[in-house]
Amino acid sequence: MSVRSERMSEVMQVGSIKEKAEKSRTVFSGAELVIKTLEDLGVEVIFGFPGGAVLPLYDALYHSKKIRHILTRHEQGAAHAADGYARSSGKVGVCIATSGPGATNLVTGIANAYMDSVPMVAITGQVAVNAIGRDSFQEADITGITMPITKHNFLIKDVKEIVPTLKKAFYIASTGRPGPVLIDLPKDITVKEAEYNPWVDVEIPGYRLPVMSGNGTISSVAEAVMQSEKPVIYAGGGVLKSKAEKELLAFAEKLNIPVTTTLMGKSCFPENHPLSLGMLGMHGTVYANYAVSQCDLLIGIGVRFADRVTGDVSTFAENARIVHIDIDPAEIGKNVAVDFPVIGDAKEVLVRLLELTQEKKNTQWLKTIEEWKKQYPLTYKDNGKLKPQYVIEQISELTGGKAFVATEVGQHQMWAAQLYKTAVPRTFISSGGLGTMGFGLPAAIGVQVANPDAVVFDIAGDGSLQMNIQELATVVQYELPINIALINNRYLGMVRQWQEIFHGGRYSQTDLSCQPDFVKLAEAYGMEALRVEKKEEVRPALKKAIESKKPVLIDFWVEREENVFPMVPPGGSIKKMLRG
Amino acid sequence: MENKHTLSVLVENRPGVLTRVAGLFARRGYNIDSLAVGRTENPAVSRMTIVVEGDEYVIEQVTKQLEKLVEVIEVSDITKKEHVERELILIKVKAEPSVRGEIMQIVDIFRARVVDIGKDTLIIEATGDIGKINAIESSMKPFGILEVVRTGKVAMLRGPKYEIE
């Protein structure tokens, strides 16, 4: 006994000496420096996939007690998960991939985050510095490849650059107009050693945050708002990014201005509010598009006048003076000429506008809009069969609009945008700019990791879901209670709809009748799944899924050839909508 | 010179900056007329002189998009400001002995120089503003121009030192 306990104390002593040595260590490997800096920056979760060039990085990560790593099954999944994490939490999403194919697999996810201005830091392994440019094994010029789809990127060639570069990357990704930043990290740099100095000063001479427009400009906007008899607010993702939803609500209510949102802006304004017009644009509501077409003042906040919103630019808001408030000066005047350009953070500008305006009624204008709402409600023909719109409505009702909803891309996405009535900001997570099929499932993973106790849905289509279906394994591994509502029409539905309307009904390569049994497939991955083919089964199935607090896939076999209406034909005027 | 603007762009002197700037022009469909780059009095900073063609909308967009590049420190459109501009041209011209005298006279008029004499060729070097450079090039055409190399325009504002804000 005594010998043993002596040994024990010896071991413990050695242990504590080791620990002390660890604490007093000042020199670390590049990989350790990466992890230490990420910890210092407050990173709690990384989504990634290991490989040869990032072996040292994963070794250092193995020892981290502060950072949780989520292993996706494809690097694209890691990028989208980091994206969903960032959008739903407001924090910077982080993903890691190895060199070559690992890095190129991130590309779609990075481009997606760039188009939707999502703060993300992607770390890629690279071949050793002296092997770069020699077409080495698993080498790809990822900084070259991602130049047009990142806010900025870095190739680190000196271990001393690791700490300052990571700091710069997080700062750039999360400030101003947010966006993805990529850091390419050669393997030899991660094993070289350097001192750790967390206080290192970081300077980025060419990066300056936009300066807010002066009082004169904002006063003139306030004046225009007070003069306007038919104003409309057109709110986008910028409102959510600047966390300006309270100010937006206060401003809209004080002046009685109806609010329409873009797909990216969805959830920035409560959609059950009488002033809400829902979404505008190609698949927007009739009343939102009429309101924009007939308003005398259009107040764009954190938007970019995207083609899916404006349709034919020459007739867009043709009767209105246009205010454009945005943090990115390059967005102002890019697609549409504006009368009141305002540079600034949405929240700061709205606070100023609240100070400079007085209460107002706009009674006549609101009455007109109320009439449009009654005359042209969002609707569909109920024939007693299982309609996709009905499924979305039921999700909306059962969750009270308080769940997180990620979507894939296509018809189901537009139905979700129209019929899921968000009540809480930053809960609608959808690929807007790039329109990335396969986004929803990995994004939902990121959302659930950031919000472990929340109800999370992935509203999916059968085409999109198959693009990142491997992530079902991730869902199961981490026991993420995601509800996958699969709107299964056995078509690439949105493309089929365009073929029906614009290509003489020639369904070229859009029939997905040959598809897997999604119930069996989900079960094979180890999750619960059920099929719903009748209207009356929808609510019980959804209830069961939500209450189970486990990953569940519900395979809704909906009417196959249902179309998304209203619809503005591409390039057409938003005044003229197809109403089905 | 209609619609041509001269942008003076200060950038960090790092690998890849030129690619970023050139890529931006290509990606957004702007036309570069010429681009000259070299380091400044501060070795960490380079100056690009970019001549770009486009209306006011294009120039405004180019400027704003350039300013968004993290390694671009400052962009200024100096077209309408008082500035000195120069370009250098090398022209290899056919010059059999019978016409050399005539060529040398033209070279003198333009205050250019002959910097190389081959068996049947001359290389002429000239510097000046774009108008002068174009003029000497066209005056050599009748003799038969074999090769032309132009640097693209470099420009500097007149007056006291141009300070970075």
Write the layout of secondary structure elements.
The complex is a heterodimer of chains A (580) and B (165).
Chain A: H1 2-24, E1 27-29, H2 30-40, E2 45-48, H3 55-62, E3 68-71, H4 75-89, E4 93-97, H5 101-115, E5 120-126, H6 142-146, E6 152-155, H7 162-174, E7 180-186, H8 187-191, E8 193-195, H9 215-227, E9 231-235, H10 237-241, H11 245-255, E10 259-261, E11 276-279, H12 286-294, E12 297-301, H13 307-310, E13 321-326, E14 340-343, H14 346-356, H15 363-375, H16 388-399, E15 404-407, H17 411-419, E16 428-429, H18 440-450, E17 456-461, H19 462-465, H20 472-477, E18 482-488, H21 493-502, H22 518-525, E19 528-532, H23 538-548, E20 552-557
Parallel strand pairs in A: 2-3, 2-4, 4-5, 5-7, 6-7, 9-10, 9-12, 10-11, 12-13, 13-14, 15-16, 15-17, 17-18, 18-20, 19-20
Antiparallel strand pairs in A: 1-8
Helix pairs in contact in A: 2-3, 2-7, 4-5, 4-18, 9-14, 11-14, 16-17, 16-23
Chain B: E1 4-12, H1 17-28, E2 31-39, E3 45-53, H2 56-68, E4 72-77, E5 83-94, H3 97-109, E6 113-117, E7 121-128, H4 130-140, E8 145-150, E9 154-157
Antiparallel strand pairs in B: 1-3, 1-4, 2-3, 5-7, 5-8, 5-9, 6-7
Written account of the structure:
Chain A contains 23 helices and 20 strands. With 580 residues, chain A is of the alpha/beta class. Chain A folds into three domains: 25-195, Rossmann fold; 215-375, Rossmann fold (3-Layer(aba) Sandwich), CATH 3.40.50.1220; 388-557, Thiamin diphosphate (ThDP)-binding fold, Pyr/PP domains (Rossmann fold). In chain A, helix 2 crosses helix 3 (55-62) and helix 9 crosses helix 14 (346-356). Chain B folds into two domains: 4-81, 2-Layer Sandwich (Alpha-Beta Plaits); 84-154, ACT-like. Chain A, domain 2 (Alpha-Beta Plaits, 2-Layer Sandwich), CATH 3.30.70.1150. In chain B, the strands form two sheets. In chain B, strands 5, 6, 7, 8 and 9 form a five-stranded antiparallel beta sheet that branches. In chain B, a hairpin with a 5-residue loop joins strand 2 (31-39) and strand 3. The longest helix of chain B is centred in the middle third of the chain and has 13 residues, at 56-68. The two termini of chain B are 30 Å apart. Classes of the chains: A alpha/beta (580), B alpha+beta (165). The interface between A and B is medium-sized, with 17 and 20 residues.
